[in-house]
Amino acid sequence: MDPDLSALDAELADDDADGYLLDADSDDPDQRYLSGFVAPDPFVTLYDGDTHLLVSALEYGRAKTESRAATVSRHADYADDAGGREANTELLGRFLDDHDIDSLLVPERFPVGTADGLREQGINVTAEDDGILVDIRSVKTDEEIEKVRDAQQVNERAMVAAENAIQGADVEDGQLVADGEPLTSERVKTAVETTLLQHGYSSGETIVAGGADAADPHNDGSGPLAAGEPIIVDIFPKSTDTGYHADMTRTFVKGEPSERAEEWYELSNEALDAALDVVEPGATGEEVHNAVCDVYEDAGEPTLRDDPETETGFIHGTGHGVGLAVHEMPSLSFEGGELEAGNVITIEPGLYDPDVGGVRVEDFVLVTDDGYENLTDYPKRLRIE
Amino acid sequence: MDPDLSALDAELADDDADGYLLDADSDDPDQRYLSGFVAPDPFVTLYDGDTHLLVSALEYGRAKTESRAATVSRHADYADDAGGREANTELLGRFLDDHDIDSLLVPERFPVGTADGLREQGINVTAEDDGILVDIRSVKTDEEIEKVRDAQQVNERAMVAAENAIQGADVEDGQLVADGEPLTSERVKTAVETTLLQHGYSSGETIVAGGADAADPHNDGSGPLAAGEPIIVDIFPKSTDTGYHADMTRTFVKGEPSERAEEWYELSNEALDAALDVVEPGATGEEVHNAVCDVYEDAGEPTLRDDPETETGFIHGTGHGVGLAVHEMPSLSFEGGELEAGNVITIEPGLYDPDVGGVRVEDFVLVTDDGYENLTDYPKRLRIE
């Protein structure tokens, strides 16, 4: 994939910097994006109009064939006999000198040890505040859109596994039971993650949260699940191969939901539709978020917009970008700026209260030239029997 | 768990620093260790003799109950109405001021944006070169040793899954076949990772590499597996619950191995035993590594010690520490310093050549007061039919 790095070129020109430098492993989405290379240990990527990699001997062969770099160098090409950090930053200094680099922009989270070591060698290192690569990454190429589509297809199979596990459970004394054992959040997660694995995906964390667990949006859920209470299933898998994610949430009740849970569910679907109506290039993430807040507030539910201190009601943002990172730009919240065609975003309204539990519905959406395409093809039904 | 942080106290006193600061998510092992807290987004941990956390509102409740911190603060406790990085580092400055911190040690990979922002507020920020927490983490507490033992038990079940998959395959035209389909590296990895998942473990990457793939120690393997060739299976799972890892490698041949592969296998086991004979507190990682090089060189195999340019033979270090990180201190290589009781290490000699493939055997070992305890209880047999 050849990303459009013209915004990075412009930023370097604006700041009169000779290059942009990353020192990170490929779990860092900026590193994976700019280098086009996957390695478990930190390596260096320099962008000066072209992309140059500096890697260990162990990664050299792979980097030459697999990365998108114009040149690949080995530590040994610049090493002397000394060891330790000083020798490492001196080595890096020689690599930069070789590329005529006297001044660098780096991301905020660039390692301070490396930055200070380069500064000691007279190289000007400035931490940029704009998240240039984060911004570039927020607009997906056609190739990236195919990868998130693939991820969403697998995500829906995993959601089937979760829904089937809950639907297929027996109810004994109000508790869900499968194969003679309590059906727990952990068992449903295993069903989800096994499905992901079989399709070459993994999930660092899957949320299967019922009861009071579901009332805390960051609680991933544990222990036995009960009939009649909303169970939030939020799956955000990552492709082992491509590194791209999908993200979707459904809420299920096995048996009879409370009237309040049903109201919340309908309201959240209404909020999701209202948000989607706003999504188009030029609309802001804040406007999308406001559409959700409007629906909830009109129904008398608390929101952070109405009461920044509330611990119940709609207590998070409306959504976020998804790509190499599961949470990335753009933000659909009070801080959300203008959407662009090519953004891949979530819309995930929800309501929470320890006395009721939690309800959330989340679709996965592509911003298109004339609005949006919903990448989600999964039914929304609260009650499953 | 209450770690022994006296070395950190001493370093702060030596450097006349008021505190040690981390700004990272809990995937950073130092952060997880010092904070005792797991969160997906970066948060701040200050150590000044006690441990203090600064987290977002979303994490506040969990941080208070789950972390090992003496105090937990919210961003809102120090926020003003501004946004952006400047406001964030000013907020952090107020938090540090509240704890009377004027000078800080930070790890090398601390974010330069945060460091520079604090420096602008007159706080002295020095990146330390010693990896103080890395050193502290290299000596495990009894509680940590139980966690790596648990991880190794699960790892051995996963290795059984791999061995069974290979052993149970049919051979058709020299290729391994299972259920009528070619047995691929990917299918064996899925068997491994499904087993890990069912026990609450995950593996970012499992190596199942045959043929020429196995000749590159960093190649995780792909495609159909063949009879008669060594298949390296290297599994390093992480507990979803505790965050601790195990690490073990076996090499299998389905069918008849070549004479050369058999020689390599015996030699590698001999090298492993020779290395174990050296392991005790006070022995250096370099001495352990030299014991492996001696065995290989005596048999006429190339090593990086003998020829730093070699691309075949024994072309990596002998091992590494394992804990919250899968690769951590101590190093068992040319740079390896003295071992200490409580180190948890791998010993993993191997030989590689694209014309032969690769062979590696790896045990997982605890350094004890009077030598070592091998935490591995898994047979070593090359040929499986």
TrEMBL record, chains A, B:
Domain Creatinase N-terminal residue range list: 6-122
InterPro entries per the UniProt record, alphabetical: Creatin/AminoP/Spt16_N (IPR029149), Creatinase/aminopeptidase-like (IPR036005), Creatinase_N (IPR000587), Pept_M24 (IPR000994), Peptidase_M24B (IPR050659), Peptidase_M24B_aminopep-P_CS (IPR001131)
GO molecular function: hydrolase activity; metal ion binding
Highest taxon, organism lineage: Archaea
Pfam families the record matches: Creatinase_N, Peptidase_M24
Peptidase M24 domain: residues covered: 146-369
Keyword Metal-binding: yes
Keywords: Hydrolase, Metal-binding
PANTHER family: AMINOPEPTIDASE, XAA-PRO AMINOPEPTIDASE P-RELATED
Family: Belongs to the peptidase M24B family.
Protein name as it appears in the record: Peptidase M24
Organism: Halococcus morrhuae DSM 1307
